[in-house]
Design a protein that fits this description.
Radius of gyration: 15 Å
Strand content: 5-15%
Helix content: 40-55%
Largest sheet: 2 strands, antiparallel
Number of helices: 6
Order of helices and strands: EHEEHHHHHE
Structural class: mainly alpha
Distance between the termini: 43 Å
Length: 130
């Protein structure tokens, strides 16, 4: 059985809706630490969104722990696309790897996702600014 490691990128919604002045010809002017802190602020806002909390339901504490584990993974990997698999995130969040995979899938399928799945070697198409 082969395991594939996929990177987890901070949600594209935040980057598509962020003010244009923070980018310079497609390159972010924020360093890695600032991008992780920016993502943590987006997580903080998402946790207080009543619609999102209602959608998360009883698993909201597990999702919150997973999001914090992803922030720690970003700090450890020193990048905004940490290449941590579900087993590493499970160890960091304290949940089973199948539970982490289920919650990651749920987070990816939201209307405004906080995470994206990045497969190594795949072409990533960034959305154009409106």
């Amino acid at each position: 059985m082969s395991a594939s490691v996929t990177g987890l990128s901070w949600g594209s919604w935040m980057w598509r809706h962020w003010p244009r002045r923070w980018t310079d010809a497609g390159q972010s002017l924020l360093n890695t630490w600032q991008q992780v802190l920016l993502w943590l602020n987006a997580v903080w806002v998402a946790e207080r969104d009543p619609d999102r909390r209602e959608a998360w339901g009883r698993v909201a504490p597990a999702i919150r722990m997973l999001l914090r584990a992803m922030a720690v993974a970003g700090r450890m990997d020193q990048g905004v696309t940490p290449a941590f698999g579900t087993r590493q995130l499970a160890r960091m969040s304290g949940y089973d790897h199948t539970t982490v995979a289920k919650h990651l899938k749920r987070l990816r399928e939201e209307a405004h996702p906080l995470v994206e799945r990045i497969v190594p070697g795949a072409v990533v198409i960034t959305p154009a600014w409106p």
